[in-house]
Design goal:
The protein has four helices and no strands. With 81 residues, it is mainly α. The protein folds into two domains: 48 residues, no CATH class; 33 residues, no CATH class.
């Protein structure tokens, strides 16, 4: 669905984009038109981030943060065993 929506956007096919939007919205809506929080949470899980940096400093900071995060994550897993 998201690939079809993206294709429609890149090719300025606005009617198809709107139809894709409606299909996606129908997946998370209740019959009364309200958002079903459980369905929404199941379908809106970020899996990828595209990040650009203006300088090497930003890249180095992100890499350092990633190493710290891995350290804390690993040490928490050891403590839970």
């Amino acid at each position: 669905m998201l690939k079809a929506r993206g294709y429609a956007i890149t090719n300025c096919m606005w009617d198809k984009m709107r139809a894709s939007d409606e299909s996606i919205n129908n997946l998370i809506m209740n019959e009364d038109g309200t958002v079903n929080d459980e369905k929404y949470d199941n379908l809106t899980r970020p899996v990828t981030a595209f990040i650009t940096f203006n300088s090497d400093d930003g890249l180095n900071e992100a890499l350092l943060y990633n190493k710290q995060d891995a350290f804390y994550r690993d040490s928490n897993n050891e403590n839970s065993e």
